[in-house]
Specification:
The chain has 110 residues and is of the alpha+beta class. Helix content is 39%, strand content 11%.
Length: 110
């Protein structure tokens, strides 16, 4: 299931998906319960991208194409742990980095 708003650009690229639910923002529709019981909404996606935009303009200011996946992973972690306390989030992050090392360059120049 793919959920989008009513922008026409989504129609053609998503027509091959099994299910495509559209919420009509222009008619003030932001979520809808489908007949099969699923929820059609893009609120979570919009909230996630809002969090990411605020992080870019507020803290990072510039994100290179090369490191974009790392920034996206960081914001996904923040989003997925948004209901945890700061201490719980810290413990979760520490557990994820155990035994890993982030290198700026893959190889050291000789």
């Amino acid at each position: 299931m793919v959920n989008t708003d009513d922008h026409p650009a989504y129609r053609v690229p998503l027509k091959e998906y099994k299910a495509h639910a559209v919420v009509n923002h222009s008619r003030k529709e932001f979520k809808r319960r489908e007949p099969d019981g699923t929820l059609a909404s893009v609120n979570y996606a919009e909230s996630f991208f809002s969090l990411m935009r605020r992080g870019i303009t507020g803290a990072f200011h510039h994100i290179s194409r090369e490191h974009l996946p790392k920034y996206a992973d960081e914001f996904a972690f923040r989003w997925n742990t948004r209901k945890l306390t700061d201490g719980e989030r810290f413990q979760t992050a520490i557990a994820m980095v155990d035994g890993k090392r982030l290198k700026y360059r893959n190889t050291i120049a000789k």
